[in-house]
Structure formats: C-alpha cells, structure tokens
Design brief:
- The complex is a heterodimer.
- Chain A is mostly helical.
- Chain A has helices spanning 3-37, 44-48, 59-66, 68-100, 107-119, 122-132, 139-146, 161-186, 190-198, 203-214, 216-231, 235-240, 252-262, 266-294.
- In chain A, α4 runs antiparallel to α11 (216-231) and α5 (107-119) crosses α8 (161-186).
- Chain A is flat.
- Chain B has helices spanning 2-21, 26-44, 59-64, 69-75, 88-100, 115-120, 128-131, 136-140, 144-148, 172-177, 187-201, 216-225, 242-256, 271-276, 288-296, 336-347, 349-359, 372-375, 380-387, 399-414, 420-434, 436-443, and strands at 51-58, 79-86, 107-111, 151-152, 155-156, 159-164, 167-171, 206-209, 230-231, 236-237, 280-285, 305-308, 320-321, 323-329, 362-363, 390-391.
- Chain B contains 22 helices and 16 strands.
- Chain B is globular and about 70 Å long.
- Classes of the chains: A mainly alpha, B alpha/beta.
- Chain A binds chain B through residues 41, 43-45, 47-49, 51-52, 54, 156, 244-245, 261-264, and chain B through 92-93, 96-97, 99-100, 117, 120-123, 264, 266-267, 397, 400-401, 437, 440-441, 446, 448.
Chain lengths: 296, 448
C-alpha cells in the first residue's frame, strides 16, 4: 500500500466511523444480545434478579419446534404470504399499468389516491375496516345481501378471518409496490414499443415480451420486499383479531410478541425471532437463485 | 435524583437554546441570551416545592378517579397527582415494560392476580411497616378473602382498591315457572333446576350461558370440590387428581346435557338481548353487569332478574374467585411516602363509597357498603354475601399462563376433540412445563 492509499483508507475510516459506530450500537449489538438471549431462559424471574437466569443452549429452539402453536402460527403466516403476496404484487402491477397508460386522465390523482392507504396509520385503517367487516352493520355484508348472499362473520369465523385480514393488508400495501412498478415502467424506452407496434405486435404481446422481461429486476425487488414484509405480518392481526378466532390468524411475529411481552419469555421469543430470520433468509436466497436460474 | 433530573433538563434546554441563538442576528441574540439567563436563575429558585405523584390507573377507573383527587390535593397542599390512564388490554404489558425500562410510576393499579408476578420482579414495596401505623380495625374492614390475594409469604404488598367476583345472574320469572322459588345452593339441586328450566324452554334455548373459552368456572367448581389445582408447593399441576377431575366432569356435563350452549365469548355479542328474550335463564358474571343489566335490559324484563351467590358442592354457600384490583407502591420510587398518602386516601371508606358511585366498582372495605347507594342496591347484596366466600387462585407468577392453558384444554374437551382424561393429562403436562423454572428455583433454594 502506498502512502497515498494508506492516507485515503485512514480518512475513509474516519469519515465512516460515526455511521459504523451507530450501526454497531443500535443494530448489531441488539441483534447479538437477542441471539445470546435466545440461548437463555430469560423470563420474569430473571428480569427481577439476574441470578435466576440460566443458559440452556438450544432448549428454546427445540421447544419451539415441538410446540404445536408455533406450527399453527407458521402455517398461518405462510398462508398469509402465499395468498397475500402474489395478490398484492398482481394488483400493484395492474394498478401501475392503469395509472401509467397514456389514455388515463388525472394519473397524478390516481397515483396519490392509490398511495394514500400506505401512509395512513394502520390502527385507523383497522378501525374503519372493522366497521366494513361487521357481521350485522358492515358495508361488505350489506353488499353481499344485495346479491342475496348470507352474511359472513368476517373476523369471527375461523375460516374467513385470514382472508379478511389478507384483503385489508393487500388494500393497505399495494400502493407502495405500485409506485415502484410505475418507476420501472417509465424506465422502459418507448422506442421498443414503437418498434413492436410497427412489427404488428398487439397489446398483450407487447406486455408479455417487452414490459414483463424489462420489469424483471423491479419484479424481483418487489417480490422480495413483499415476501419479507408479509413474513413479518403482525400489526394487522394484532389490531383486528388478536390472533383469534381459535388461533387462526396467529402469525409467527404475533406469537413472538405474545411470548415476549405478554408472558415475558424473552429467551423463547428471541428464539422464535431467529427461526423467523432463518426462514426469511432462506426465502430470499431461494428467490435470488430462481432469478439466476431463469436468466443465465 | 429529582434534582439531577431537573439539572439534566436545564442542560438540554440550554444546549437547544445555544443552537437556536447561533442562527439569530446579534442584537436579538443578546436579548434572547439575557432572557435565557434570567430563566436559568429562575430554575434554581425554590418555587418547586410541590411533589408530583405519578399514578397509573386502568380503563374507566383511570378516568373516574380524577374526580376524587381535588379533595386529596386540598388536604395535601404540597402534593400534586398526575393520573396516567392506561387501557386494560395493554396494562399488564405496559407495567412490565415500565419496570424493565426503570420508568415505573409511584403508585399503580394492578389486577390482584398480577401481584405474585410483580412481587417476583421485586417491583412492589411491602406495606407492612407503614400498615403498623394504621388503626387495627382498618385491615379487618377489608373482605378477608380479597385481602389475602395481596399477601404473599406473610407480607402485604398492596391494598385492595375495589373487589370483583363471579356469581349468578338469573331470570326470576323463568325460575319460578320451572317450579323453584330461589336458586338452589348445592350442585345437585342446581342441575335439577337447570334440567327443569331446559325442559321448559325447548331445544333452541338453554338453562345457562357459559363461555367455553374461559377458565373461571371450571376453577371455581374445582375449588368448591376441594381441589388444590397445583401440588408440592405449586411445583406441579394437580389436575388429574380425583376432586379436580370430578369438578371438571361436572363442568363438561353442563354442556353435554345441553344445559349450556357451546359458544365462545366472541359469539356472545348480544348478551343483554338474549337474556331479555329468554335464550338462557342464568349466566355467570361479575359486578359490572349490575349496571349494564340495569341500563340495557328492556323495562318489561327489569322486575324479573336478580343475582345470587354460587351454589356449593354440598350444603352452604359456594366459593367464588377473589377478583378485583389493588393499589401498590413502586419499590424504586423516590416519592413512596407521597404515594402512600394517596393510597391511604383512596382506601378511606368515604372515598371508596364515592368511587363506587362514580364507577360502579364494589368497595373493598366493608364499612363503605353502608353507603345508601350500595345498601339500597338489591343486586349488590348477593355480591356482599359471595365476597365473604372467595378464594384466591395459586399465588404464583405463572398462574395467568396456567389459566390460559386450562381454558384451552377445557374448550377442546367441550368440543369433544379430546376426552376429559386426555385433556387433563395434556393440561398437567403443559403446566409441569410452565412450572419447570419454579421447580429449579426452589431446588436451588432461590426465592421464586
């Protein structure tokens, strides 16, 4: 290393140090602490007096994997992600195409309107949606009654509660992905479409052979972010159903929260957090691999 | 500590002002700097003689207690109270988080079933030395079963604020029509009355409404039968033991015989309407429903309902649960003395009676029941009798989780997903796992 290089490294280090320090203190340290916590039985007793803390190795992880409640929660979370995720991506792509179409008037207005739910507080949204879902006075059941369909107890019926939560979550979140899709769409050079049109390609073929392939990276990004976000679903069931009815909307993060902050089993809750982390990591790696495999 | 805190605040304020000043033009800067220095010197003046007591109370209690405080502040000119109102649904978590974050209030309300947990945390100050200065008959004025929930290992950690227990609300007209002048006082007679009621109302209606996902009634029945719930100093679950099993089978029988419909409490939204139209004749509930029934039942039904203590296994009054909320001092608070004054004030019989008028919460002190508002309430009398016969659930921090498991397994047995014996075996297994830490602590000679 020449003197000049060393000097550059040093100044880079100095300039980066504050940011790195902050990240270390407020990000890596808590994560590390949580990892250590997951190997202990930190609970209400240990909170009162640290002498009552035990290191128990992987016992929390074993207990978690043997707990039927964890598998219920994982099943619910996968349900939410596998149904809600693709639905959310499809709707946001559709909305982006509509808003971005040359024929659409007031596209600025629609863009804002569709984005509005994203920036609205979830609790306020949940309260409004609870009215919509109300079995007797709700707008949704009123609409169904016009089609002479029997009322549905959206949030009280074990088989309808999750679809109801998914519907609300998709409505709340699709605006964010839509904006990203719009940005992706606007990056596609218009010459491609012109050339295709001259060659006689119809709208569907232009979408299939130009829009979709060129949106590839955007797609990957949106799919990853949606998966990660949906894996961590918490606020929707927490506010709407508290995990009920009969644990049918209990998600992994909600389980973690209950164990951690209701029963104060911090060790066990940390173990749940790391299991979730591993699952999300695996999902991300899988998607990246898929992408690499599709476009060699 | 208080002085340090205010110093710190002054410092941060000074820093903020210096930052602001640096953006101003010189003459204005001078003016502000002068004002600021004057302000600082003002901070040092002994104007801050009043002590602020931070008091956390839940739900409507937090709202209504404010009406009592002007009198307290009038009597104690140096004390001011800041009430922080916390919703019940978040109260437990918020108190635990406050403890972990060293941000406990000076005085706080807590459900009396939470006391063992906060004692295990060493979060509450024992009151014994302070209580010695109290008149001897003051403690005897509390309902003994309720006061017992505030005592652990011979020490008193909190004082009951208001009391709560479960008993029967029933339709007098339907019961008379079934040929019973009063609700029976033994299990056997009780079932006979309910069977008669059920035969009278037909298949669509029921004798009694119970919630299949609550733990209270099975626990009450088991305590009435003499079951201990846990064994070996609360080291293990004791749910397969014959007396618990018998009570559990009796409880399941109420559903099996069709006396109670198998519904959970989310499906009971219109309790009042259904009670009014006779969908059920009896329900198990608490004091809050005295007011609710009075307000929500139609006028035509108003003369035909009453409350009654729970029946027992054999002769005599049946036990119920010692519920309610207590007030405790935070062990780390520097203002414990001021907080204790507020606690004493809220424990006075006059304040207890006023609090009843404000909230409908039943007073913990029996002398407050002489207040005409309560003495003339015919629905409250059964509660007064029942409150003489209440028992606490096991005084261990794990109880809330155990009760949750009990409700879960009872629901599965009622829904016939498992047999009664399978449910009890699974319950014992779950409870033994929950109590593992407690066993370890006891085996090491550590105080749980």
């Amino acid at each position: 290393m020449t003197g000049h290089q060393r000097h550059a490294t040093l100044s880079a280090g100095i300039f980066l140090a504050p940011a790195l320090l902050l990240i270390a203190i407020f990000f890596f340290l808590p994560v590390l602490a949580a990892l250590l916590l997951s190997f202990t039985d930190f609970d209400i007793y240990a909170l009162g007096d640290l002498n009552r803390l035990r290191f128990i190795g992987f016992a929390n992880y074993l207990q978690l994997l043997q707990s039927p409640l964890f598998w219920t929660a994982l099943g619910n979370t996968l349900y939410f992600m596998l149904v809600g995720g693709p639905l959310s991506v499809a709707i946001s792509l559709g909305a982006a195409l509509l808003v971005n179409a040359r024929l659409t008037r007031f596209s600025g207005f629609f863009r804002t309107a569709f984005f509005l739910p994203v920036v609205t507080t979830l609790v306020a949204v949940a309260v409004a949606w609870r009215y919509l879902y109300h079995p007797r006075y709700g707008l949704l059941n009123y609409g169904l009654s016009l089609l002479s369909i029997d009322p549905i107890d959206w949030l009280g019926d074990p088989s309808w509660a999750m679809p109801a939560i998914i519907l609300m979550a998709v409505w709340k979140n699709f605006g964010f992905n839509m904006i990203i899709f719009i940005a992706g769409l606007q990056n596609i050079p218009p010459q491609f479409y012109e050339a295709a049109r001259i060659d006689g390609a119809n709208a569907w073929r232009r979408f299939r052979h130009i829009t979709l392939p060129l949106l590839g990276p955007t797609f990957l990004f949106v799919a990853l972010m949606t998966m990660i976000g949906y894996f961590q679903v918490f606020a929707e069931p927490y506010v709407m159903t508290e995990g009920g009815p009969a644990n049918r909307t209990l998600s992994v993060v909600l389980l973690m929260y209950e164990e951690g902050f209701r029963w104060w089993n911090m060790g066990y809750a940390s173990a749940a957090a790391f299991v979730l982390f591993v699952l999300i990591l695996a999902g991300t790696v899988l998607q990246l691999q898929l992408r690499r495999w599709k476009s060699p | 500590m208080g002085a340090l805190e205010s110093d710190f605040k002054a410092l941060t304020r000074a820093a903020a002002i210096v930052v602001t000043l640096s953006h101003m033009s010189p003459p204005i800067r001078l003016l502000f700097a002068t004002l600021f220095i004057l302000g600082l010197s003002n901070c040092g003046a002994p104007a801050n003689q009043t002590v602020m007591v931070e008091f956390w109370a839940m739900g409507q209690e937090g709202e209504q207690v404010k009406a009592l405080l002007p009198e307290f502040e009038r009597r104690h000119p140096g004390l001011r109270v800041r009430v922080q109102q916390i919703p019940w649904s978040a109260a437990h978590e918020k108190l635990l988080t406050a403890y972990a974050g060293d941000a406990m209030p000076d005085l706080f309300q807590l459900g009396n079933t939470w006391i063992p947990e906060f004692v295990a945390l060493r979060a509450v100050e024992p009151l014994d030395s302070r209580l010695q200065a109290w008149p001897a008959d003051a403690l005897a004025d509390y309902f003994p079963g309720i006061l017992a929930t505030n005592r652990l290992n011979g020490r008193t950690y909190a004082l009951p604020w208001y009391v709560d227990t479960r008993l029967l609300f029933y339709r007098t007209d339907l019961l008379t029509a079934a040929g019973f002048a009063e609700l029976p006082t033994t299990w056997e007679e009780w079932v006979r009355a309910m069977t008669r009621l059920k035969a009278q109302v037909g298949s669509e209606r029921h004798a009694i409404l119970l919630s299949i996902n609550e733990w209270q009634l099975p626990v009450i029945l088991a305590l009435q039968r003499g079951a201990t719930l846990l064994r070996d100093q609360d080291r293990y679950g004791n749910f397969r033991e014959p007396r618990f099993r018998e009570a559990f089978l009796f409880y399941l029988g109420l559903f099996e015989q069709g006396l109670a419909p198998p519904v959970g409490n989310t499906q009971m939204a219109n309790l009042y309407q259904e009670f009014a139209n006779g969908a059920f004749a009896i329900c198990v509930s608490g004091p809050w429903n005295i007011g609710e029934f009075g307000r929500r039942l139609p006028a035509a039904v108003q003369p035909y309902w009453n409350t009654a203590p729970l029946p027992g296994f054999d002769a005599g009054l049946g036990l119920s649960l010692a519920g309610g909320a207590s007030l405790a001092l935070s062990r780390t608070s520097p203002r414990r003395e001021a907080a204790w004054r507020l606690l004493k004030f809220l424990a006075e019989p006059e304040q207890q009676a006023r609090f009843y008028q404000l909230t409908g919460d039943l007073p913990a002190r029996q002398s407050a029941w002489a207040d005409p508002a309560l003495a003339d309430n015919r629905y409250a009398q059964a509660f007064r009798r029942q409150l003489q016969q209440v028992r606490a659930t096991p005084a261990i921090p794990e109880w809330e989780r155990i009760a949750n498991k009990l409700a879960y397994h009872a629901e599965r047995a009622i829904r016939r997903q498992v047999s009664a014996d399978e449910a009890l075996a699974a319950l014992d297994q779950d409870v033994d796992r929950i109590l593992e830490k407690r066993r370890w602590l006891l085996s090491r000679g550590l105080q749980p």
